Amino acid sequence: MSSLKSYAVIGHPIGHTMSPFIHARLFALDGIQASYHVIDAPDLSDPSLLSTLRSLDGYNITIPHKQGIIPHLDHLDEKACRFGSVNTVKNSVEGSCGYTTDGSGFLYAIRTGGASLSGQCLLLGSGGAARVLASEVLEAGGVLTIAVRSQSIQKAKTLAQELLARMPGAQVSCITFPELEKGAASYDLLINATSVGMYPKTGASPVSESVVKRCQAVFDAVYNPEHTLLLRYAEKNGIRAIGGMAMLVGQAAAAHEIWSGASYAPEDIERLCQDASAEMERQFAHRGNIILCGFMGCGKTTIGRYIAELSGRKFLDMDDYIEKRAGMEIRDIFETMGEEGFRRMEAEASKELSERNGLVIASGGGTLLAPENREAFRKNGTIILLDVSAAALKERLKNDSARPLLQKPDRDAVIDRLLAERMPQYREAADLIIDANMPPKPVAKRVLAKLGEADET
């Protein structure tokens, strides 16, 4: 029996990685017994970390270490040396040798996605991955424009000079994102080599929809989520959209070729791309947030605590969260800042919480009335309306003295008016509507059943 080999992937942040799933499948196809684990490291300065990496048979490198790993290696493959980027390392008796397989994965994704590198290409970013993708574009005869943030323009120009030195006659220019947004140039292919839009900050796009509209095809190296906001812009406008999963699987297969000489049938790689996307969707759905909305008194807090207990998520009440941030109770916020001040704090809290995961969030009664709050929570969660009859709500709220909006003599009339105003907006905001007139625990079980995470019994 062959001895167990050991591999890993290192990066930061890396909690979103699909590499263990993909490499486990590839090792199975190889017939090799191997372990593959994740190393989350903000930097490479720890000697014990470097010792651990050297003890492995091989490892992958992702953001932000593709260039930083180079001084710690004994050798570089010709392509990695030329591109100045490493994403794969093989350790042997001759020492550690760095390679780049990003180019192979990129070419696989572009080819199977039905796009071409031979036209006008817009590349977003100038980091380690961007260096590789830029080279592939120019080697394919494409005309390249590198777009970066204003503070990174010199880095982009340096990259352009390096590319031109290696490939005299190539056509490459640089532009800042503000210049890109103001311009009118069109492109055959937009390539995102930045991490913008990656989980958990999925509500961001490196460029606006107006830029996307000027492109014939869009490739996003980000693979989690599968449908980034950038790709959704493309799909919305009927533009060819290519996600990053094919590149991830393609570069992983190329890494195995380096480590063990493995080769794969095209249908096996295609199937792995599909299975990896399905697995990511399953994992992503589980760790996404559950946001409960509904009228005051509908049971968001009690039901939310049960959902958290049953699903292993963490429960968080929006009002409690805002009170802790403000250092005062909700009624005091209303008294000192007015409703406008409270709604502003509510919007800030919505944005912050939308960038976290694994939460059950009981939203305030007015939180999801604001479109920007709805959009924030939809980035990384499912919005669920707890629907309770007006009669039941009035009964539940008859002795409530903590809600500023109900501190009026005509309480029932206020409830009727607010219900008429808010329920249509709650329904518009909700991804799911759940009857919450029953006791809280059965409602919690029904929510998880509707999400496919539990049986309702």
Mean pLDDT: 90
Structural class: alpha/beta
CATH topology of the largest domain: Rossmann fold
CATH homologous superfamily classification of the largest domain: P-loop containing nucleotide triphosphate hydrolases
* First-to-last CA distance: 47 Å
Q: Tell me what the CATH architecture of the largest domain is.
A: 3-Layer(aba) Sandwich
> How can the largest sheet be summarized?
6 strands, mixed
- What is the gyration radius calculated from CA atoms? 26 Å
pLDDT below 50 for ≥5 consecutive residues: which ranges?
none
Count the domains: 3
Shape: elongated
What is the level 1 CATH name of the largest domain? Answer: Alpha Beta
Helix proportion: 40-55%
How many helix segments? Answer: 18
Beta percentage is 15-25%
Strand segment tally:
17
Q: Can you list the strand order of the major beta sheet?
A: 2-1-3-5-6-4
3D structure, described in words:
The protein is α/β, with parallel strands linked by helices. It folds into 3 domains: 5-100 and 249-284, Leucine Dehydrogenase, chain A, domain 1 (Rossmann fold), CATH 3.40.50; 104-243, NAD(P)-binding Rossmann-like Domain (Rossmann fold, 3-Layer(aba) Sandwich), CATH 3.40.50.720; 288-450, 3-Layer(aba) Sandwich (Rossmann fold), CATH 3.40.50.300. The protein is built from 18 helices and 17 strands. The protein has helices spanning 19-30, 47-55, 78-83, 102-113, 128-139, 153-166, 177-182, 209-212, 229-236, 245-260, 266-287, 300-311, 318-326, 330-354, 371-378, 390-397, 411-429, 440-450, and strands at residues 5-11, 34-40, 58-61, 75-76, 88-92, 95-99, 120-124, 143-148, 172-176, 189-192, 217-220, 240-242, 289-293, 314-317, 359-362, 381-387, 432-435. The strands form 3 sheets. It has a 6-stranded mixed beta sheet, with helices on both faces. Helix 9 (229-236) links the parallel strand 11 and strand 12 (240-242). Helix 14 crosses helix 15 (371-378). The longest helix has 25 residues, at 330-354. 41% of the residues are buried.
